[in-house]
Amino acid sequence: MPITKSAKKALRQARKRERRNLLWKNKIKKIKKDIKRLIENKKIAEAKKILPQFYKAVDKAAKNNIIKKNTAARKKSRLTKLITMAK
After folding, report:
1. C-alpha closest to that of 73 among 85, 86, 55
2. Which pLDDT score is estimated for 69?
3. What single-letter DSSP state applies at residue 66?
4. Alpha-carbon distance 40 to 56, whole Å?
5. Is pLDDT above 80 for 4?
6. Which residues are CB-contacts of 32 (< 8 A; sequence separation ≥ 6)?
């Protein structure tokens, strides 16, 4: 447990940031899972409609340094490729 005042504040900040980061990561995972489920059920048109939401979530996470820029690009590229190959 932190003892000094600054260490206590640092712990509070770290917990707050962790919650915020997990929120974005979970949002990305959920949308990705939804898209993959739609692809499995051959609902490509619906998957394409959800894709912009995925792009937005990934881009915002990358902008706020929750995930790295290249990781964001890789995630977007792979999911897009998956949709186009499912036709």
Report:
1. 55
2. 97
3. S
4. 23
5. yes
6. 54, 75, 79
User: How many angstroms separate the CA atoms of 62 and 46, rounded?
Assistant: 25
What homologous superfamily does CATH list for 5-85?
A: Ribosomal protein S20 (1.20.58.110)
DSSP H stretches of helix in the chain: 5-40, 44-63, 69-85
Q: In the numeric block, which tokens belong to residue 23?
A: 């929120």
Please report which confidence band the pLDDT of residue 86 belongs to, taking 50, 70 and 90 as the band edges. confident
Q: Tell which residue, 22, 16, 10, has the closest CA to residue 66.
A: 22
Amino acid at 6: S
Cβ(21)–Cβ(66) below 8 Å? yes
Average pLDDT of the residues of the chain? 96
